[in-house]
Amino acid sequence: MVEAERMVGGRDNDVHVVNDSQVDSIVTPASRLYKDAVNGFGHYIVCCHIVNCGKPLVVFVDCRFDISQSGFHRTLPVINMEDDRVIEMVTLTHKETGSSWRTESTALEQALTALETKGFILEEVVHDDNSQVDAILNQHNIVSQKDLWHKCKNIMGKFKELLQEKRRSPTDSTVEAATTIAQVAVFLMVQLNDYCRQQGLQQTGNKLQLMQRVSVHLNLEEAGAKITEIQRHRPLRYPELATPDIAYKLKSWIYTCAKNAAKRGDTTPEMLTLGIHNSADHWAGEHGTCRTLPGVRKCVLENWSDSHERRYSPGGETHRAVKDFLMKYTTQGKMKYYLRARENYISETFHSVINMSATKRIHFDASHCVRLACSALDWNENIRREVRAVYNRALNDTAVRRRAKTNRVLVRRTTVWKTQLASTLFS
């Protein structure tokens, strides 16, 4: 029993196996039998945690890419949304698929085939934004939904890059014709590198350092300014969007529209996209569409005026830019995958549990699947622990204020799966 506990994870005071050679160097027939039994027993326990009663399931999938040995292993766990337990897990290597980029699609095909063979019915699969996964789910007639958090993250990044950041577009004039640092800042880094090479100046460094060398060479007035001061001279794309909170406002707006669509049970994305596109008019002081959309809105209840909390003028260049941006990146074809407002954070949480047994820093060969099976057993046993107490977090620190205000105290973790595994293997 002690030897079994040491090999499957150890007690709290035992030394955990962190070097793969400690397990893989054993080449006796008993060790091979142990590894095969762990894989088989772990897969059996994982799949038997859910009762196959013919009920359609909603599952989460997210591939874990091992960074050691050029991404040798890639694991795809399938987690049931109802109880957050792993019901299937497929691990492949790039040697089996020929390429690391095809491993996720191949693993998903195998996982769907295995679940269908066992009689499970999948109604919906939630994943990150992957076009290959969409094509596979379409072939199996399964509803495809994407993670809302990743969508909002991508939209925020595009919004900051295209609308909020300072100008980096090229100009028709030459670098020699620049008279201020603000004009030098408009040029691309490639153009500044070419000018430095022509003039015999040093070409190393980032763009701000190149700007400073060019400004000194051209004898501009602000040539002696620091790099941080030079950065402020670059003009904004749209000065009315200079406030940093507008990107987070857009994220909250998309979240609210998606959750409202999920509550209404919308089957088409027309109302969802209309609500998201309305944010451009709402920030311009035009609340006509706000009154026609379903749901209670603060601007309608308080009868806001056209100038109340208006961020830019209606019909102006900024208004058109925001509206064109939303029309391009939140189309009906893209937002149909977010009608149910799904979030795939549970898969990322399970990946952190895997890292405790199979870290990405070390390449595991023979014992990799054993470690994944043990992680799945531990996850399924402890994911639904009871809450003993709830207390408020200290909000004095600014870094803590963005986190949850309350913290839950769960009951102690159990390791019954170790005893069952040891009794099954060594009885």
From TrEMBL:
It holds the Pfam family SAP_new25. This is SAP domain-containing protein. It comes from Riccia sorocarpa. Residues 184-218 form the SAP domain. It comes from the Eukaryota. InterPro entries: SAP_dom.
